[in-house]
Amino acid sequence: MQRLLKLYQKYVQFMQGRYGRFDFLNKTLLIIGLIISLFNRWIPYSIGNLLTLFILSIIFYRFFSKRIYPRSNENQKYLRMVEKIKQKDFSIDRSYRQFKCPSCKQKMRAPSGKGKIKVTCKKCHTQFIKKV
Fold it and tell me: Which ranges does the record mark as transmembrane (predicted)?
């Protein structure tokens, strides 16, 4: 028990003044490294091993870095970037209705709530009636 306590005290002393956080950026890098190591078999010339080692070295560098504020700023920039991506609405715009041309399958849209409208396809010039 004494050895364990002494080892813990050495660890605490070593980590004083270091970043030492397993933040969101480190977690994402770890997941990417694990995915690359899983698909390592299909990546030629051991590039997967090098990428995995590179990503792990970045994680260790960030974890043991004494430059706390730059590491924290990196994480904040990453979180802002992820938040911007999450905020983008990739769904269909609610004020338009999307449909396909019956002959060429070209995607089209029309304002919703207009009732029955006559639509002309821009690609094949087929005319048809669609309820929107």
Answer: 21-39, 45-64
